[in-house]
Records
---
Amino acid sequence: MSRTGRTPRVFHGWYILAAAFVILFLNAGIRSTIGIMVKPMAADFGWSRSAISAAIFVNMAVYAVSLVITGRLYDRYGPKWIIAISTVLFSVGYILMAAMGSLWEFYLYFGVLNAAGLGGTTIPLFGSLIGRWFEKRRGLAVSLAFGGYCFGQFFLIPVFSDMIDISGWKSTSLWMGIISLVVNLALTFWIIRGDPRNFGLKPYGARDRRPAGGLSETLPESASGAAPDPAGGPISESVRVVDGPRDLTLVEAMRTRSLWLFTVVMFICGSADSLVTTHLVPLVTDYGISSGTAAAMLAWLGLLSLPGILLAGPAADAIGNKLPIIITFFLRVVLFAVVLFFQGRIPFWIFSLGFGFTLLVTAPLTTTLVGALYGVTHIGFISGFITTVHMLGGGLWSYLGGVIFDETGDYNLAFLISAAMAAVAVLCTFFIRDERHAPPGWIAEDAF
């Protein structure tokens, strides 16, 4: 890619979108396999489900912290080395798991090393990256990239499940780490780039900003203090760029009610996501259903997240972010009720497919909502904070799900609480103010 201003034949953002798709494809399939490993590891080492779930809690807590760190580093230094270093940590964690023999090693390799690499190799960072390369149809572009996550779960979970049955979970863990290391590093150094303006390009669909006087002038958001038009539409010549509110920092965003309401929503979202993806296979096999069928349910859960994620981005472009989120959590209330009142092959399939549809709806909406409310300059850091809380909720509820099972013998109480929390998420979303927030004092300054 040239800095001379020469327009490339194919906009490089499309290559970045494709690379993000492949990396998420691999990482989703690999990451989701932990749910299939719960019972084999318990059988090999005699660990309880709460002990294994505790390692998953540690994993997601470290992941949550890594999201804040990688989000901040990404905003400052760009994506290439962040993704590369994260890939090494993510892959080495799985490679070392193949040789572990004790619980503390599981906590170290999976809970710490692997999780430290997740922050730079998963959805939040790639959402921020795609958001910088696409201004027009940003929601759709983010959704297409995130589609890799859905396909990865669908195609790779059955593959890794068969590998576990044939050669054992340790051999499977080794190969997952090697494949991730080689493929992700190759894509990172070959394709991934940072802000398009650093390479003489504008984001896809970006239009020239016009100062008063009508002269065309293209300004990055850091220069003007104004966020780009998220829809890529025309901007009136009579409006000065500097008249719009500048992008908010995380500290400034924390002073708004909308950020905390959405943070509660994402805590609840992460709680249910992790509970289901970690414990679905053990839950289903507890009722006498084969491990192959249970793995298929988890795989289809991943695939059915594709239509949800593909609809979420364009829906946000067309009608805003709140309604898709409200519908998502209302569906979850219904689905948890299905599992509470009915157990069996058909109810479990209904739950898996329905929950899969809701699984990643909030992933592109986090990026689009943060951009719409607070601008894109600090989108990585703000999104990282929100997703940190999302993952902390997931880790905590995944662990407590294992504790509840060990104490009661089933997951009914965990699912009942999850249904109530989903109802709370509906209410919180309703009160989010889905419009651009101004920094403190901006109106007073504008008045003069």
---
Amino acid sequence: MNNTPKFHVNLWGNLQGNLNSAIWPNVTKAWSEKRYQDSFFGLLDYINPALRNKYGDASQTQFKVPHGSVVVDITLKNDNLDVSCPLVDISEATRIPLLRKVAELNFHPLVLAQIKLRENQLAFNYTATLDTCEPYKIYYVLKEICTTADRYDDELREKFKAKNLVEPKVIYPTDDIASNAWAQVNDIINETFEYQNYFDSQRWYGSSLDFLVLALKRIDLCLQTQGFLKTESERLIGELNNGNVNLNDRVQSGRNFLKLIQQNGFDSFKKNLYQAETFIPERWRVNVDQVKSAIKNATAKTTQYHNEKNYIGSVIESLYCIYDMFYRNNMDNTVNYIFIGALTNASGKTWAEASGILLSSLQTIENLPSTTN
């Protein structure tokens, strides 16, 4: 294994999102001046400048915004904010395990919103007066509703036979893109197994685990999968990063999951390859300064490994950092171009060559002008 992993470009989808960062100072200014309705409208404009016109009624007191397989209903009335979001119908579901799962969700990950049952329908709910709708808090309320709906609606249907309340508005890729996606996923998986066999032969079991996590995040950047495959991938990444679980058990779980993707075949895979209308982006929006802060430790470790001529360690550290930044965040295009360029140029190179290329990208970003100046 003398060469580094191949880079597979993003096949489709927006890596940056619709958030308009320039509007945010006006949102917080209106809040500090106690112009609470203006602050809330500004928050909606920050999320998507076209949102109010596209999804609001004539009086701008109700907004029905689609997000994947749900619709978030926001109502302003008598200085109150009411947010509801129908989730699933459980009329024909296996109710006891499903309701047990929902009870768990109401403790975690939900913090402010809650899922309530009414007439065989589960829905998110949140109510507050406008003077308590601090913009950071309300953005988090909307994000936790949308993220939880994204993450668990497929699980509630797949495992407990719940049914959608809203038909998702989704766009599936062309046959060419779907076939290309399947080929790239298999390439990533097969390549991962090859690296693991090499690392295991050297007894570098930690590196074997790292490449499993990298495989899932490489697939995510390449395809932006949805549905049950996305839910299971997120669950597995959490399991792989759980230091309380035996290392060998984690490695085996990761290998089994990648094998299962291949065994389930193309038809099963392509059901999870689509784009849906999005209200709150899953990933956090970060500026250049936040990226510089996030990569600081990884840059230091990569530099150390590179200077010690531990090129494999240097490449793994930098790849882990870069793919994780894409996995968790929507970044400025300035950062996207630097990272994508580095991944492209390092693809298939020797460990020493790739180490220098990837380290240079991290250092370039660390030297970018501050966005707060």
